[in-house]
Amino acid sequence: xxxxxxxxxYPMTPRSVRLARTHxxxxxxxxxxxxxxxxxxxxxxxxxxxxxxxxxRPGHEVWLRVAVDDExxxxxxxxxxxxxxxxxxxxxxxxxxxxxxxxxxxxxxxxLDWFLRxxxxxxxxxxxxxxxxxx
Length: 135
What we know:
By secondary structure, the protein is α+β, with helices and mostly antiparallel strands. The chain has one domain (about 5-130): Heat Shock Protein 90 (2-Layer Sandwich). It is about 30% helix and about 25% strand. It has three helices and five strands. It has a five-stranded antiparallel beta sheet with strand order 1-2-3-5-4. α1 (about 15-30) packs antiparallel against α2 (about 35-55) and α2 runs antiparallel to α3 (about 100-110). The longest helix has 18 residues, at about 35-55. It is globular.
């Protein structure tokens, strides 16, 4: 059986956050992923919301990729790509209503990283373990 791997692009609008959540939940349920699906949906929601809020550029979309790594005990990788080169900052002491998203993501994930894409922009990558976190 092939390793589960799915991706989709969305317009850079706030409605895309809800769609990405729904699609991620549905995909992981269909795959019968043994990890915490609600954590995966939360991570997807925060990353797509950040991309829509901070990465909006005319003529570009936000890309979401969800993949299970069977070689790593079914760990889940969530990639969200946008056209902006600036990397997000995890604010350890957020103020007000903004700045908490990546802190929450960091708290539920095994790892949080980002890298430049070959064509344009960056990808923020989160990995979720099936069992308890090891970091």
